[in-house]
Amino acid sequence: MDRVRQSAPQLAQIIPYDPKYIPAEAYMSANENPHDVDEDVRRAIERRIKNVELNRYPDPLANELRDAIAEANGLDRDWVLIGNGGDELLFDTALAWGGPGRTFLNMPPTFSVYEANARLLNTTVLEVPRDRENEYAIDEERVLELMSGPTSEVDFTIISNPNNPTGLMTSFEFLEKLLASTDALVMVDEAYFEFSRQTMRPHLEAHKNLVILRTFSKAFSLAGVRLGYILAHPEVIDEYKKVRQPYSVDAVSQAIGSVVYEHRSTFVPAIDEIISERDRMYEALRVIPGVMPYKSQSNWLLFKMTDAGQAWEALYEAGVLVRDFSSAPGLEGTLRVSVGTKEQNDRFLLCLRDFALRKQED
What is the pTM of this model? Predict the structure, then answer.
């Protein structure tokens, strides 16, 4: 046959996720930790991997790592589930709570994968846009209106906290009010909580509809390993088990994750440095002509400027790769820069300042 049957019809509206990861000297586009795992931890990883039986299937539920995370959070194992990155767990959320006849509430602009997963599974998507004039704050009144009460059509929602790519935190007061007003699943995506140092964990036991998502990719420098986890009531975890792929977290990743989590305190100095550099970059961006940065509680900064697309090109020509959102709906005229090393941050600021001054002179 010189042809193939058309794929599922819902794929026609799906745009593949593209992080636009292209060669550069300073990678400042993907919200990665600029520091790799240090040598002492790396050697411990190597020793652990030597004992991994590669001919055997991994522990299906990654129970060693599961137990360590549960203990650190004051929980039993049944409250924790490990995934192949946060992305697998996001997809499992759509599998378990979405589908035909089901409804997902989205609050754009936010992480585009939330909506893409819902649409991929033929889930109805309701949108409550964020307020761009108020640092992209959630329209709390409208969200509560749509989700409150037993007659609400919404089956699940995901709130990135801090929100990616805008950096704003959603107040715990609102999240508490939302959780109390609905039986819909509310996932709070805390992929960057080590940088905000704010978490919904204290509210978990009180709300069966709360799921907290976290990752090893950012603060723990393991973007290349693919490990994430959720905290939720055991009854909710059981529903996730029904849809997750068997053996989705390989044995090598489990070994790496266990070592890194055991040594997680060694990552604190780098996290502190990233927070300090983020705040320094924010102040520096504020004084560059034509640049308006948004406050952030994460490891990146979103900023608006005239000729943002041209600024992205100028930065890339200088070897600095940032994320271009200048044409994205609701984010027009913006770029996002991940916090890098001090040297990378200085390079970025110098290049952007030079571009802004040239545009001012034109």
Answer: 0.97
